[in-house]
Each structure stands twice: as C-alpha cells, then as structure tokens.
Amino acid sequence: MKLLIVDDDDQIRTGIEQGIDWHALDIEIVITASNGVEALQKFTEMLPEIVLTDVRMPGMDGLTLLKQIKRIRPQTKVIILSGYNDFEYLKTAIQLDAVDYEMKPIRARSLVALIKRVKEEIIREQMTEQEFNKYLESYKASFRSELLAGNITDRLIILEGLQQHYGVDAAGGLICVAARIDEDWNTNIETVTAAAEMLCHLFESSELTEKGICLRSKEGSLVFLLKSETPSFLYSRQWVSELLNQLRAWNRELQSQGKLSFSAGISSYGNVSEFVEMYNEANQALSLRLYEGKGSIHVKDETMEFADEPITGLLDHAKFKAQLLQGDLAPLVDVVQNEFEQLKLERKYSRKSIATYTKNLLQFFMVIIRNAPSDVVEYIYKKIAVIDERSEALAMDDFKKIVVSTFEKMSMRLSRELSPVMTRADEFIRKNYTQELTVEKLSEHVGMTPNYFSHRFKREFGVSFKEYVNRLRIAKAKELIIHTNELLYVIGEKVGFSDYMYFTQVFKKMEGCSPVVLRKQPKH
C-alpha cells in the first residue's frame, strides 16, 4: 500500500515519515508533501490508498484537498491531523467522508493503531468476510514469523501487534522463555508436533502468571510470554525458582506420556516494549543446550558468549591423519570421542562452528581414506544432510554420535577385505578416475567379461561401477571447489567429466546443490 503524508510543518512531516517502521505495517511506499497543491499533484500521480493530512495549510487547506481526493478516487481513506481548536474543521471533514482524525501533538502508538485499522478497512472492502478472516490469520502468522525472525524491531509495531493479535497490553512486566523440543536426527515431525502442542497447552493453562502466550516459529522453536500486571512479582527470585520447577515438572510429564523432552532458556524481567531484547536473552540462554544436553533449562547469564569461528582440531593433527591413511580406524574412535568431550568442556564455540567442524571432519574422512567404500560415502552424505537440516536440534552429544557412528561404520566396513581382483580394480579406478573409465576397460584390466565384472563389482562394493566412479569424482570435485578458486568447468574436467552439464547434473543429484551454490557458501 501507499501512504501520502501532508503537513506544512517540516518537523511533523519528517517525524511521521521517519519515526515509524512503515514497512512493518505493509506500507511499501511513503510519499510526503508540504502543502495541499503539492499533495494533490503527487496524489494524482501515485494514487495512494491512505492520505494523512493537516487541516490548516497555506494555499490549499486540508478540507479542499479532501474534496479533490474524493472526486478523483472516492475509495481513498483520508485521515485528518487536527489541533484542539479545529473542531469545526473536523466536523466538516467527517461530513466530507474523512475516515478518522488524529489530534496534535501526534502520539506515534495511537497513529500506528489508526493506520492499521484503516488498512484493514481497505482490505475488508476488497474481500468477502471469509477472505478477510483468512487474511487476518495470515497477517497474524506473518507478524509472528517476522517477530521471531528478528525482522520487526520497532517497539511501537511490536506493542501494537502483541496487543492486537495476542491481547498483551503495555502495562506490567514480561518474561520470555525460548524452548525447543529435543528431537533426534531421526525423529519424525509428527512426534515433535505432538510434544510441542502438549507443551503449549500446559503453558497456556498454567496458573503461574495472569496471562501466558505460546508462539511457535517455523524453525520449530517455541516462545512463551509470561505476563503479569505486578512487575515486582515477576522480578522476584522466588518466582523464577517456581518457573524453573514448573518447567522441569512439565518435562517429566511429557516424558511420562511418551513424549519428547524439551530444553528452555529464560530471559530477565522487562517491559513489553523490550520484547526483542528479552527474546534474544532467552535464545542465548537456550543456546547452552548445545553443551548441557537435552532437557536442560537455563536462566540468562551475562557471561554467556560463544565464538563463531573455525575449529581445526583433528583436521590439523598429523598423527591422526597418518593413522587414517593407514586405514586402522578402530583405535581412533577414542580419539574422536575425546575431541568432542574436550570441546564440550571448553564451552567456547557456537553451534554454527561445531556444526561446520563436524561436517568438515566427515568430508575429511572421505577424502583422506582412499578405500572408503561407496556405501560408507553415501552414509556420510546422509549425515552431512542431517546436520544441514537439523543443526538447531542437535546437542554436542549428537554431533559426537554422528562422527563416532560414522567412524565405527567405516572401521567395520574397511575390515571386510575386497577380493584381490576387486582390489586391483579399485586401485586402477583411483589412479585413473580423471580419465574415461568404462566397464569394458576395467574388465579387460582384471581379466573378466564385462557382465561378470559388473556383477562382482556391485556385490563387493554395494553399488554399481558407474555410481562408484561418479561418487569418487564428485568427492574430489567437492574438495577442489571448497579449497581452490579454479573455474568450475576446469574442476569438472580435472575429475573426469568432459561434459560440464553432465558434471553439474551428477553433482546436484549427489550433493543436493549445484557446484555454483557450493562455491558461494562461506568457507571455514
């Protein structure tokens, strides 16, 4: 929608234009004019849906402008800005179909509420009742989503939105609780939803506060707002202690009914207008779940800071790399476990850093171990996908389990020796994967018929010859894309793909993204 602001007072006009986050109110274009003549010209050009105009202006006053606007576009909503001595002007303006008025000095919160109401009137006129109710639900969902994503920071917009959609007024105190259902990497969405719905019900029906509100984000987190008209009550340590006990009791109740547990972070006390700060505090407290594990509940602590920086760890450990190259993985399981236990004790790194390090370790395993079977490579790809999709749901122990389980699988799989003939085939492939490789060429190299070679290859490697070669090439290509600046088509040729389009097609199928997208991702 478009809004035209008309006032001959520069300070008032600029204050209205710049003092309110109009974008958050779905007002995409804001136009200003310093008098009625200029306003009429701009109105004719832009045809805004809402006009906010002063009454007393030189040249053309607000009432004359109102008449002209209604002649050109009758459906435009005009709001009159008026002083306390303008009663007769106001009476005439209402007769001329002004939709409402706002008294000077202008109060931003009152003006925001008025604009929202007028905007909804416009939308209602364009829709059936059913469509309008659907719009209101959609607008509420959009407000919730944008609020929890941190995209709405204007205190007036937040206050107005919480009051309109959730009945939260500005009086009294507020505490914010950020929670997350403790899902695993293989938990289905129905199980998570059932636990979240039960937790919301427990919270909203609780007698802990005078008003409890549960907001759910698209990312799967829950936000509870605990409202009380008595700030001192919310601020007391006794109440925070009661809240902690209640949250722990709800955790036990969820688990007793076969539901998943949850973790939570509790903000400090604040006013409703300080929602953004309290929401950030609650999320910061919740971030301790990474180290404390599932089912943990934390109160905001000023000292909580996690570094969002790269971790090298085992990636730079020469002895670890040497043992990997030898293929004797069993003794290294303890090394990996100790590495993650040490990271857990340090409590230094952010979730993003831990997730990136875990993925880098998995990719490192694939590249450094020359004989990694294709089924193990596929297993690693799946675990990397889990981290990409569910990183926010994982605790440190989950990241450790992913790496250790991968290591154990690789150790078990590599302990099964290939037959001498397939070992020769594998050595030939790894030495010549940059060249054109065919079943006929390999079968001739090992002294078999093509059909029998294909059968034996799939039986021992778990995948077809073509897929095995493609996986090896893509793994090598991925390493070059991440660690070099070579042109993508050159990388494709280097790893054995003469056709760049085919290279990108195979790459996207195996990696879930194109080489271009991978190249654009930040490097750690």
TrEMBL record:
This is Response regulator. One of its GO terms (cellular component) is cytoplasm. GO terms for molecular function: DNA-binding transcription factor activity; sequence-specific DNA binding. PROSITE patterns: HTH_ARAC_FAMILY_1, HTH_ARAC_FAMILY_2, RESPONSE_REGULATORY. Keywords: Cytoplasm, DNA-binding, Phosphoprotein, Transcription, Transcription regulation, Two-component regulatory system. Pfam families: GGDEF_2, HTH_18, Response_reg. The modification 4-aspartylphosphate is found at D54. InterPro entries: CdaR_GGDEF, CheY-like_superfamily, Homeodomain-like_sf, HptR, HTH_AraC, HTH_AraC-typ_CS, Sig_transdc_resp-reg_receiver. Residues 423-521 form the HTH araC/xylS-type domain. Residues 2-119 form the Response regulatory domain. It comes from Paenibacillus oralis. Its main location: cytoplasm. It is found in: Cytoplasm. One of its GO terms (biological process) is phosphorelay signal transduction system. It comes from the Bacteria. PANTHER family: HISTIDINE KINASE-RELATED, TRANSCRIPTIONAL REGULATORY PROTEIN HPTR.
